[in-house]
Amino acid sequence: MNYLHNIGKYFLMIKEMFRKPTKWSVMKHLILKDIDDLIISSLGIVAFIAFFVGGVVTIQTALNISNPLIPKYLVGFATRQSIILEFAPTFISIIMAGKVGSFITSSIGTMRVTEQIDALEVMGINSLNYLVFPKVIALMLYPFAISIAIFLGIVGGMAACVYGGFTTLEDYINGVQLDFVPFHLTYAFIKTFVFAFLLATIPSFHGYYMKGGALEVGKASTTSFVWTSVMIILLNYILTQMLLS
Amino acid sequence: MIIVKDLYKSFGEAHILKGISATFEKGKTNLIIGASGSGKTVFIKCLLGLFPYEKGCISYDGKIFSDLTENQKRDLRAEIGMLFQGGALFDSMTIAENVMFPLRMFTKQSKSEMEDRVNIVLKRVNLAEAHNKMPSEASGGMQKRVAIARAIVNNPKYLFCDEPNSGLDPKTAIVIDNLIQEITDEYQIITVINSHDMNSVMEIGETIIFLKDGYKAWEGSKETIFKTDNEAVTNFVYSSNLMKKVRQMYIEERQ
To answer: CA spacing 20 to 30 A to A122: which of A20, A51, A71, B126?
Structure first.
């Protein structure tokens, strides 16, 4: 029953978020600040993880191809497919649920504990629009981070492949170019937009409606990470079923 | 004038406010006192519209709060200044930005006009040099003064203060009390203060309402509180030996 209550409350929060918009001159700054906090500051960790996991995917694929009849360029093909279809949009989003999600929950939760949200409400400001809406807009640039992750994942795979001696550079590049289906990129970016919305709203929900003190802010951050990850994985399944099958 | 009539508020089975009526006048500091759990904070949050109430009526200069549309409530709230217990300053903004915030949200002033107004109010609360400090770099007393500056920057008609002296040393507490009273007088605003600090009661309580278990148990002023024989008030206000002696001396002096 409590789950249903919270689901209803989540959708009401989203509806409320679009009501009574904040002045554009103020909102503009909030969006730019959130782009910096949520996207720009995450690029380092996204790049690092993408590069090395791309390398690991390549090594694992190469090591598991023991049949001499399977051409070596398939290592590049498998790396590209894994990175575009799953690794970049889904795996990176789960990492972002930890990094960005806990940042959003703890910052909004702290504002709740220290009565800053009450202060906004008393001033007649729609606090949901003021706090959550800029995060949703900022995270619409999340596909930009995922594009970098795709590129660096493939480059990381190439480095691992060539410097590890698994295939030649030429074979790897041939594999990466083999049977490329542009819709797979569309699929990856559709998923990314959906996950971006979840990354902005679920942690905001847990921060905004939390009750208690500093300890509860920590608990809310953990809960928000768990629920954001669960929803990303669940929607990943549904979207894959809908778009690819 | 703020008029509250027969206000009721419950949380589930817990009845917090049980038919409270009060009148708060312009240019006066109105204190709401009572023990912890007596319903002071709930009362003030009902006045601000942060908590919906079940029964009763709140009117701001003739405007019935519950009859107002969302836009009208928003306009009314732009005329309200609030000083929260912990200050509730925005951590990500400097002191000057915190004070400028209501101006940015509700006025169409140019940046230089806003900066001028911020300078005036920060000077008024003796914080002319603190513009670029972050709230975390300010002491408790400074944070309260910044919160007062933010509350008055947009020339509010109503000022609400939730325990403005909590966590402050006696000297700073008096500075804050006097500042609130001076501002109330200077700008002719309606000030409602929620407090259980007896110094505040004796210093600035032009109208005092005593809440007990959700009821209004007594109403008077800083002069009449010395003479009252209302048992609930005397048990609360004169619970310490020091306050008992103060009262005794006051009565003897008058005789």
So the answer is: B126
Chain A from 106 to 135: CB within 8 A of any B CB: 110-111, 114-116, 118-119, 121-125
Question: Which H/E stretch holds residue B159?
Answer: strand B158-162
The number of distinct structural domains making up chain A is 1
Q: Which of A33, A118, A125 minimises the CB distance to B84?
A: A118
Examine residue B188 and state whether it is found in any structural domain, yes or no: yes
Walk along chain A (245 residues) and give the pLDDT tens digit of each residue. 788 999 999 999 999 999 888 888 889 999 999 999 999 999 999 999 999 999 999 999 998 887 888 888 899 999 999 999 999 999 999 999 999 999 999 999 999 999 899 899 888 888 999 999 999 999 999 999 999 999 999 999 999 998 988 889 999 999 999 989 999 999 999 999 999 999 999 999 999 999 888 899 999 999 999 999 999 999 999 999 999 88
Reported for A222-225, long-range contacts at CB under 8 A and 24+ positions apart, including other chains, are A222/A102, A224/A101, A224/A102, A224/A104, A224/A105, A225/A97, A225/A98, A225/A101, A225/A102
- Indicate whether B252 belongs to any domain: no
Which residues in chain B are closer than 8 Å to A23, comparing Cβ atoms? Answer: 104-105
- How much is the pTM? 0.84
